[in-house]
Amino acid sequence: ILELLIQRDAEFQELMKLAVDQGKIYHEMQLLEKVVEKRDNDIQQLQKQLKEAEHILATAVYQAKEKLKSIEKARKGAISSEEIIKYAHRISASNAVCAPLTWVPGDPRRPYPTDLEMRSGLLGQMNNPSTNGVNGHLPGDALAAGRLPDVLAPQYPWQSSDMSMNMLPPNHSNDFMLEPPGHNKENEDDVEVMSTDSSSSSSDSD
Amino acid sequence: LDHDTGNRLRFQLELEFVQCLANPNYLNFLAQRGYFKDKAFVNYLKYLLYWKEPEYAKYLKYPQCLHMLELLQYEHFRKELVNAQCAKFIDEQQILHWQHYSRKRMRLQQALAEQQQQNNTSVK
């Protein structure tokens, strides 16, 4: 029995050793777990910071792009201040955009070209059939719309006598209809309209 | 050379015509004669939008015509212009707006004059 006891004790001792070892290992495991947890936290923290940094950078890049766009836009619209002043003077000195200070109802002046101005312009003088062939359908049409009598008159400043030769209206096409045929027909109608008698054009309301 | 002259002429004609669009009575006139129903004319109005570009707009004495031109792109507006009251209303509003700065200036001048009077009396 003593042997058994000794045996049991030895086993017990071994088990105790094992338990202690296991305890140590368990303890180590716990330490390692803590370390792992700490590392996890670090990683999460870094992740957050990266995300934030990305966000800030993205915003900065976006704003920079917007800035570049507006710089480009401003550059495209760059006009010399002299030109702007000249233009401002032109449209205000003629009372085109601001009424004259002495204006009262009954004054024939208007913020748009009046009958008289329209008649004395180039459009008004285009009523001659001889000049009809120079342009296509529409200016003649507009002219017919005005039905303006042939009047010789001084040039009004709104007709831009200082225009440069290089100014070309875009899309030089006389055909504004969707279907190409019938183009000649339009010119015929044009001539017909031109030869009708002139009725009074738009009247000014006072 | 002929081509150039033609272009110059066309430029001036279109310049004149686009500015005529600032005249609401003329628009009423055009509407009543059915010009706004003509597809070719409507296309022409769209084509005239090139006057909005600064290199062309600088030739306009009546830049208000550009606003009318923009409005004319809408069929509803073109239809409304047949009515004389519509044209009259636009005309009245245009003239009132035209007088806006003159009136503002006069009010400023009046205010200044009153202020000066007050200063004079207070100095005494």
TrEMBL record, chain A:
The keyword Transcription applies. Its main location: nucleus. Residues 29-63 form a coiled coil. Belongs to the Mediator complex subunit 4 family. One of its GO terms (biological process) is regulation of transcription by RNA polymerase II. The keyword Nucleus applies. It holds the Pfam family Med4. It comes from Bubo bubo (Eurasian eagle-owl). This is Mediator of RNA polymerase II transcription subunit 4. GO terms for molecular function: transcription coregulator activity. Keywords: Activator, Coiled coil, Nucleus, Transcription, Transcription regulation. Residues 162-206 are annotated as: Disordered. The gene is MED4. It is found in: Nucleus. Residues 195-206 have a biased composition (Low complexity). It comes from the Eukaryota. One of its GO terms (cellular component) is core mediator complex. Transmembrane segments: none annotated. Component of the Mediator complex. Component of the Mediator complex, a coactivator involved in the regulated transcription of nearly all RNA polymerase II-dependent genes. Mediator functions as a bridge to convey information from gene-specific regulatory proteins to the basal RNA polymerase II transcription machinery. Mediator is recruited to promoters by direct interactions with regulatory proteins and serves as a scaffold for the assembly of a functional preinitiation complex with RNA polymerase II and the general transcription factors.
UniProtKB/TrEMBL annotation, chain B:
One of its GO terms (biological process) is regulation of DNA-templated transcription. Pfam families: Med31. GO terms for molecular function: transcription coregulator activity. InterPro entries: Med31_sf, Mediator_Med31. The keyword Transcription applies. One of its GO terms (cellular component) is mediator complex. It comes from the Eukaryota. Coiled coil: none annotated. It is found in: Nucleus. Keywords: Activator, Nucleus, Transcription, Transcription regulation. Its main location: nucleus. Component of the Mediator complex. Component of the Mediator complex, a coactivator involved in the regulated transcription of nearly all RNA polymerase II-dependent genes. Mediator functions as a bridge to convey information from gene-specific regulatory proteins to the basal RNA polymerase II transcription machinery. Mediator is recruited to promoters by direct interactions with regulatory proteins and serves as a scaffold for the assembly of a functional preinitiation complex with RNA polymerase II and the general transcription factors. Belongs to the Mediator complex subunit 31 family. This is Mediator of RNA polymerase II transcription subunit 31.
